[in-house]
Amino acid sequence: MQIALVAHDAKKEDLVNFSIAYQALFASHDLYATGTTGLRIMEATKLKIHRYQSGPLGGDQQIGALIAENRLDLLIFLRDPLMAQPHEPDITALLRLCDVHNVPVATNMASAELLLRGIWRGDLDWRHSESSDE
């Protein structure tokens, strides 16, 4: 599976710790991330991550392009709901693309846990088999 990892500044440490906890699962998938988030995860784990620009510099849009091209199976985007983001339109567009292209997205730790446990059990294999039918 192709999985993208994105986090707002206040949630980066949470995503790093989450990535450490699920490192064994993540290691067998292709990972993508926005700039600083990807760097911090790579520094804390042995995971290989394709890094894009930071979110405000276009990284959200680069991840969105993966979704639009049917090259992403899952997005974990830990958002900070208590802080206004100057690039909110890009964030909204990214989440809308997930809805349009039926890509599962987690915006908080609870939904991220559920999705990864689903991957562990093979519950999300339909994304992988659906794209191979094309």
TrEMBL record:
Encoding gene, per UniProt annotation: mgsA
Every MGS-like domain range: 1-134
UniProt-recorded name of the protein: Methylglyoxal synthase
NCBIfam families: MGSA, PRK05234.1
Any one GO molecular function term: methylglyoxal synthase activity
Species whose genome carries this gene: Sulfoacidibacillus ferrooxidans
Catalytic residues (UniProt): 60
GO BP term (any one): methylglyoxal biosynthetic process
Residues at which substrate binds: 8, 12, 34-37, 54-55, 87
